[in-house]
């Protein structure tokens, strides 16, 4: 048997991520990935090509190109776009050049050139299940990374607890809905949470208790969040940030797109005004059953 085979597996990957902030942010993020392989398999003989069995000449290309573009903006006005393009353009050839080609008996002659892209089924991003204990969503092969920004679509169903579903905008499609955006915290290949990550040593002001993020946090006043100290590469859990308690529920008070405070009371809760009689002899005001948390005293 005479066998000539050439196989190529070529891969190209391009990723772009941009974050803009301020009153006005404008930009376009472009990611292009291109694979243009040339694969050839051949027999070139000035004389007779003859074997006692089969002759096979095969050239195979399995190209793959992945392009990912991500962009976010925060401020009074944001204009931008993301463009990701992937191109696969293989040139595959298989041939025999000879005055004559022969096989004995029932031998076959095969000349084959093929290009088969490496296909991966994209994720559906469907929420398969939720884990209330871990506050995670189970999404098969989501492919998302911590810090990615996603919009939650509840498809007319009751929104998952703690999340905000789409709201009708009154505009014609495809702008007929407003979507709440969330930052992703990846918890594995199939699980994720929504929230934001900050450096407790560098991003917390000990005087004002203001937490500053390196990028838009996408949190809103009234959001309920659990504070979880980070875990380093060695699996060691960091100490809790001063004034905060690990694994505790807090409310968000959003100051702007990159700064928040955490409170133990709901800043959106309506407080009923209570009448009182001033005590001119002291600086203390006594209101029976005022119901105010300590942070508001």
Largest sheet: 5 strands, antiparallel
Strand arrangement across the biggest beta sheet? 12-13-18-17-14
Please bin the fraction of helical residues: under 10%
Number of strands: 22
Instruction: Estimate the global geometry from the Cα principal axes.
Output: elongated
Protein structure class? mainly beta
Written as H for each helix and E for each strand, in order along the chain, the element string is: EEEEEEEEEEEEEEEEEEEEEE
Residues in β-strands, percent: 35-45%
Measured on Cα atoms, how large is the radius of gyration? 31 Å
What is the terminal separation in angstroms? 91 Å
Query: How many individual helices?
Result: 0
What is the residue-mean pLDDT, rounded to a whole number? Answer: 79
Poorly predicted tracts of residues: 17-27, 71-81
Please state the oligomeric state of the protein chains shown: single chain
Overview of this structure, please?
Helices cover 0% and strands 43% of the residues. It is mainly β. Among the domains are: 114 residues, no CATH class; 74 residues, no CATH class. The strands form eight sheets. The chain has a five-stranded antiparallel β-sheet, with no helix packed on it. Strands 19-22-21-20 form a four-stranded antiparallel β-sheet, with no helix packed on it. The protein is elongated and about 120 Å long. 12% of the residues are buried.
